[in-house]
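re: ur question from earlier - yeah i can do the single chain one, its not a big deal. heres the input i used so u can compare w yours
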Amino acid sequence: MTQSFDFSKALAELQAGKDLTGEDGVLTPLIKQLTEAALKAELEQHLESETEVNRKNGSTKKTVKSSIGQFELETPRDRSGSFEPQLVKKNQTKLTPEIDEKILSMFALGMSYRDIRGHIQDMYGVEVSEATITAVTDQLIPELKAWQARSLDTLYPFIWLDAIHYKIKENGRYVSKAIYTVLGVNIEGRKELLGLYVSESEGANYWLSVLTDLHNRGVSDILIACVDGLKGFPEAIATIYPDAEVQECVIHQIRNSMKYVGVLR
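and the output i got, formated as tokens:
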């Protein structure tokens, strides 16, 4: 049985300085899991289209090389032997860099089935159903949710809270989204990504919900919270962490103070 990719373990390995790539790299198990999930989805689609009785028949193993490292791939089989995988063909032992990138892109675009369908069509040269895409993405969604809801340390001496704005394609048009990012330093001095949250725009009210989520996940105290100059942000922090010291970004303070400086002519 294919092991699920452990995001918490991967994060710990990255913090410990482990390489992203290579045979024992952090990303290699993820590429393996996504490739095998795509192959299983291919087989499911093949069985649905068969006119004669056919069924799954275990899997075969082979070592596959990719641009980020090699791994042992389990390719699913069917009883009649009519299944011809397209992502990694029967005699293929190397993934091209382009396929690696598309698999990672498919993972990154997991929220949009339309975008994933476009990537798979480019990858396979065929149109796939939404059910097939769901079979692939649904294997990762529980892992992502588990990472988002994981327990955190009781105390973080420092945390940085900031929203990064991106233009993303949604329902055929590009819209702006705010990615709320919470980065902390634990008592051992290691940086840790505590959470990522998505909203339409940045506001103190949404930050209050983010801080509430951190508290519910076990963070009972913060010593210093580093933030930008967003109005109402310090008050939102004080609501959940009344003893936390709020340090506003120096750059934002300079920019705000320049509004009160007269312009020489």
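Residues 7-145 form one domain. not sure if urs matches, ping me
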